[in-house]
Amino acid sequence: MKLTIATCQFPVSSDIERNFRYVSRQLRLAHERGAELLHFSEACLGGYVGVDVDSFEDYPWDLLRELTQEILELTSSLKLWVVLGSNHRLSGKHKPHNSLYVVNPRGQIVDRYDKMFCTGDRSGKKDDLSHYSPGSRFVMFKVKGIRCGLQICHDFRYPELYREYNRKGAQLVLHSYYNGGMNPETKKEYQNVWAVLVRATMQAYAGSNHLWISVNNTTRRESSGSSFLVRPDGLVASTLPLHRAGVLIHTIDTEADYYDASKDWRRRALRGIYHSGRLVQDRRSADRTCL
Asked: Which has the closest alpha carbon to 242: 254, 228, 252, 231?
């Protein structure tokens, strides 16, 4: 099965109306270029609180809701699937979620992924956890028969999440990042995190789980890395330039014959059977101290 996806990047900011204009423009551009599913970065519409915005105090929720509705209407008119990063308000004094909305071609929100592993320590008073409530649900949806899963930024530090998506039969994971807005000194550290750790980890997850991964990031300077797409064999299929708004168009084919070294035994390993082939009953195998 084939699916043309658009991995989108632009300089996310605290200005929701500016973010909205970028999203709308890239929706139209990707549609013109034949995309069927658009993937946007973390908090791309509402701005990333703690980076773009200091806090949720006096946050313009009404404006965010109004512009989100306009995006839903545009999505419907273009008949596209969209994964949109935003902030999701909760009730009472509960902190909002850092979320990805799944929007179908009728402009309906059919599901929502909430970042499970927000950054911060057990006190809940640092980094993401000082602003956001974590989620606890895996999200799967189908586009043209292809099973898609969702992840957000720091979630990549937990390989258990990708293994679970593998168990659930995911063929494509859309992983939205926000790794930007840094000063030059901070970038020296985090550029290596993206160039070495993020890129290598995404390639390893794709290859070990044999699935496609769409990775995007904000282009807000200073950004540590640009968006890219990884094939099921772990190789990077294509990438966008750093610090430049753009849309990466790529048609994935889930039936293409990409190298998969562990295909014969992966399902058994996921069931807790940690060997290939057939075990032998032999005293010299059982005796681990003999020559």
From this structure: 228
